[in-house]
Specification:
5-stranded parallel beta sheet; Rossmann fold
Length: about 350
């Protein structure tokens, strides 16, 4: 709508991630450096965390562009409360491998043979798990087992975990020392500071040919920062609505009054919606009264996360069970799901490897 009115080549503040619009903030530069460093190591886990809307998915897409010219097979997995029973089929599917009607043990062996074939072709295998904070401890443990697969001292699979801040708490609070020792690089993306927020807005506008139409009053940048807390996705939402407001009112200069109108409209539209559950950046940067207090807070948050995940998992498992009951069974198929291992057993060489 407003693109033609302001003679822009596209939408500067679209919500869909576009690697071409990535703003090189300090946080994203450091995160990309950690990802590339981890990739060069060719083993273990790399963990990137950050609040909702800080650009984690966009960063991963940019990473894929950086790696496009290399001899690499990338499996991208958007986690959705996957459990230990679900993660192997999901990984196989991401690698375009068959997974239906295979036991856990058989599927693990088929994955290993496939990864060995890649290594024989001097091809690196990388698994990127987005929204990894929704993985259960059992699923994370299964990923650790996959990361342990090796041939002649070389890892067959590397894993990048990308998720919200609670991913760290899941790993710390669930007795996952073996997995923690496999994390070779870790970085948390913080919201942008005020100056970076201003530079981000101008970067996005100039990327689509903005020529100071509409003219933005200087105080707009500070107010957008305060309203968004420096989170890119929130900045996009506010600025997109501001440009739409300017188009509807036929304004070629946007001031604080226009922004206030937009923010008030957005507040009214979200009336009655509970406030965000995220911890504000200001609170995150404050020092807690003591180490004990910080530990108690993490423990309480982890307990709440665990209760929530358990409830979601129960619903998902019931849904899967009902779907399986309704699916027609192929001729000769076993009458139960006994083919899948339920006691967590794996081939001895993989089970005992650290």
């Amino acid at each position: 709508m407003y693109q033609a009115f302001y003679k822009l080549r596209g939408k500067p503040f679209q919500l869909t991630p576009d690697p071409g619009m990535l703003f090189p903030s300090k946080g994203h530069k450091r995160a990309m450096a950690y990802l590339l460093y981890g990739f060069e190591q060719g083993e273990g886990f790399v963990m990137i965390t950050g609040a909702v809307g800080t650009g984690k998915t966009l960063l991963i897409q940019k990473l894929f562009e950086e790696l496009a010219h290399r001899n690499i097979v990338v499996a991208s997995l958007a986690s959705a409360n996957l459990d230990g029973e679900d993660i192997l089929p999901a990984v196989a599917s991401a690698l375009d491998l068959p997974y239906e009607r295979r036991s856990k043990e058989a599927l693990l062996q088929e994955l290993k043979q496939y990864l060995i074939s890649l290594q024989a072709r001097h091809t690196h295998a990388l698994l990127v798990v987005d929204e990894a904070q929704t993985l259960t401890p059992a699923a994370l443990e299964m990923l650790r087992i996959l990361s342990n697969l090796e041939l002649r001292g070389r890892a067959l699979l590397q894993v990048f975990l990308v998720g919200q801040a609670e991913l760290r708490r899941v790993i710390v609070s669930n007795h996952m020392e073996q997995l923690r020792q496999r994390i070779i690089a870790s970085h948390r993306i913080e919201p942008m500071a005020e100056e970076e927020s201003r530079a981000y807005i101008l970067h996005r506008l100039r990327a689509v040919g903005w020529n100071n139409d509409p003219e933005l009053a200087p105080e707009i940048f500070s107010e957008v920062y305060q309203a968004s807390r420096g989170i890119p996705r929130k900045i996009n939402l506010i600025m997109d609505r501001l440009l739409l407001h300017g188009y509807l009112e036929e304004l070629h200069a946007l001031n604080l009054a226009a922004l206030t109108t937009v923010l008030d409209e957005m507040d009214e539209e979200m009336a009655g919606v509970p406030p965000t559950l995220e911890v504000p950046a200001v609170l995150q940067n404050q020092r807690l009264p003591s180490t004990t207090a910080a530990g108690e807070l993490d423990t309480e948050l982890a307990a709440l996360d665990l209760k929530r995940n358990n409830m979601l998992l129960q619903l998902m498992r019931e849904e899967i069970r009902l779907k399986r009951m309704l699916q027609p069974r192929a001729p000769g198929a076993p009458a139960t799901e006994d083919m899948a291992l339920t006691d967590g057993r794996f081939p001895r060489s993989e089970q005992e490897r650290e």
